[in-house]
Amino acid sequence: MTTKRVLLLAGDFVEDYEVMVPFQALPLLGFTVDAVCPGKQAGSQIRTAIHDFEGDQTYSEKPGHNFTLNASFADMQLDNYCGLYIPGGRAPEYLRLNEAVLNVVRHFATKNLPIAAICHGIQILTAAGVVKNRRCTSYPACSPEITLAGGQYVAVPVDQAYADGNLITAPAWPAHQAILRLFAKALG
User: What domains can you pick out in the chain, each with its CATH number?
Assistant: First the structure.
């Protein structure tokens, strides 16, 4: 097993910061990050969305950058990865409908490998059935999904993260420092 390789699971309209920051920051800590999207190959681009907190009842959304994938979902060798990172945005709401995506999450959960999910990324974890009897956080609007999936929602400030064993979660992109710190620690 390659001990320094992280799988980053993304899709169209992933949150811009939530895919860009870990993709750029984890290599600074010595990790190779393979960014994949179901149905797309290395070199393909996905569109991102910028979500901001501007005093409205929920976040606002603006067009983000195009993000270039550097690996192919169909070619993944899951045993080559030491951790899984799931950014939020709108992508998780449809990625969670893909059984292959759910099986990827279940693989990491079964092996008790570090899994990080930020914001709406929790939607993939709840659909995969890996939050039952676990404590985790997310964007507050996703908290009912955690409860319905048998987990316990933990409210933390927007710039903080929460770890329950191998499961590391955070509410939104202001928590990048916190979630990446906990994820890197879990990765060793």
Answer: 5-187 (3.40.50.880)
Q: Which two tokens mark 7? A: 């799988």
Please name the residue ranges forming H helices in the chain.
Answer: 16-25, 91-95, 99-110, 122-128, 143-148, 176-187
Strand ranges, E, within the chain: 5-9, 14-15, 32-36, 45-52, 60-68, 83-86, 115-118, 135-136, 152-153, 162-164, 167-170
- What one-character DSSP code corresponds to residue 107? H
Give which of 138, 124, 160 is closest to 7, Cα–Cα: 124
CA dist., res. 130 & res. 54, Å (int): 33
Which pLDDT belongs to residue 53?
A: 86
Tokens of 81: 């990865």
| Global pTM exceeds 0.85 | yes
